[in-house]
Amino acid sequence: MRPTFGYHQTEGEPIKGKELPQVTGQRxxxxxQRAKQIVADLGYTYEETTRKALGGAYGVTMRPMIEGxxxxxxxxxxxxxxxxxxxxxxxxISHARLHMDQADQTESMHRGIKExxxxxxxxxxxxYFGLDTADYSTGYIAGWANADEETILATGERVIHNSNWxxxxxxxxxxxxxxxxxxxxxxxxxxxxDQSQVEQARETTPARSKPPLPGIGxxxxxxxLDHPTQHPTTRRTANKTxxxxxxx
Length: 248
Hints:
The protein is α+β, with helices and mostly antiparallel strands.
């Protein structure tokens, strides 16, 4: 049986006033999979749901109040446009890192500041990867900050640090499938040319000539990953303090 979480155990986007315009841009499937991998690396379970099930929210981050009695979960409403789903997932990842896993430090933080931080990160990361969320994000941030410029500026350092961390995780060092295949084709052609040159050299080289030095003409070997889109990230141990998170 799944535990029921109280309001104080969740972080998310409550609906405030009129509905903001949804983000309608497209997301890269590879980028989407990498974002979900971040969720797993943070120790959370990813779930797909609907806005109706979330009471109108686009996403929610939850953590059980008592350790071991339930899973840490990030849920996203997949009946929203794909671009909005990506923005929401980054918003929830930000809640997980900045608020849920640092509950002992952020418990007294005003809810509005938490929402400004999470949505600011979602905006910056989405923008970096070519997805413009300004129409939604600016209204959302202004609503939670009550248009207070000082409140928004006060979150700047944490927002920039967290956004850069997420971008680093979404920018893998390992090559994609397409990149690996291209390199393998180049490698094969190079090996064929090298083999042909070796055979020609054998036909024309005197018997007592010295063999070529090792490594000359060799092509670096490329190891194809089993799951190239699931990139290694620096795993961090989730703070074991108890709490949860909700995003509408």
